[in-house]
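Table 4 source record.
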Amino acid sequence: MTARRVHSLVLLLVLTALITPVHSAEDLPRARPEAVGLSGPRLDRLTDVMQAYVDDGRLAGGVVIVARRGRVAYLESFGQRDRESNSPMTTDAIFRIASQTKAIISTGVMLLQEEGKLLISDPVGRYLPEFARTQVAVAHEDGGYDIVPARGRITIRQLLTHTSGVSYGSGPANDRWEAAGIQGWYFADRDEPVGDTISRLASLPFDAHPGTQWVYGYNTDILGALIEVVSGQPLDEFLQARILDPLGMEDTHFYLPLEKANRLATVYSAAGGGLERAPDPGHMVGQGAYVSGPRTSFSGGAGLLSTATDYARFLQMTLNGGELEDTRLLSRKTVELMTTNHLTDQAFRAGQGFGLGFSIVENVGARGLPGSKGEYGWGGAYHSTYWVDPTEELVVVYLTQLIPAGGLDDQGRLRALIYQAIVD
């Protein structure tokens, strides 16, 4: 190669480096909406509508990210992170994602199956002996209940699909759950390891016999305790090493590092047609103990904090069949198993089933919302939501902090406005 050709090649490489966007570990590639089959002007309608909720005093603020074909076409923040200090919402704001934690924990379980360390058909009692024999509370018509042995052993798959019969302590024997100090999904203020809490939970009467009903509850918290036993690591360390670091999810934590505290969005409650700041520090419907709490209990069901971009990276991995950039986290067949309906005759939602950590759209018309068959997603107690539409190669994350939400219709409008922006 001549000196002139070498010089030309070096010059070309330098120019390419200058004009090629550089993305840090936490950024998905960006694209103009039109480059991925979306309309920029139509997406602007979404911005206007979300801002209107802020202007009307129905939302403090939030962040929306829309990625299509692996590239982010829309990432906007609106409103305020904290109204009292007049702090604007930013796209890197950190939110309590509550039950959005469940999909990440479910992924951790599937990693262990891929390594041959468990099978999801295994009884939970093989790893957590307290669950070898469980009980069920059977309600009487007069309001009382009987406690009977469970018909069968709870399996890991039943925990993944919420068919184990375990609730959040709201069933017939709720008095016993209350006496045990185990009710509600909030763990951040607990000063005991999650395994100890789950061990006590195992002795309480559950709401239904294993496999007979879809019952939302502590299923994924039990899975978190199971992960600790099977992996030999605390849950936070396992997630960091096996999921968060490999996927570049740099702002996802159980408890917030102090240097990031000023990025945590404030929780508000819908009250009398307006907003009230939730109690500080608060419990569940409040600011919580994610900064100044004991930092001891890792809730696999509802404990994580995250950003819209971090969570979109996780979802993009699933849409890609288990891979993100140069990292293979899961096999394609594992993701297929997770995003397939596993319910049989257990009643759930119209047009939907449930997989291994996600709700699954089975019939778009029966559900009655824009979307596609095979779409999967879920949400969190603080009014956040997300979904992945494989047909449209679409990832959506919407994070806000509002509990209770008072029947706000923002999620429905968000969905309608995203699908109306598809133009290819």
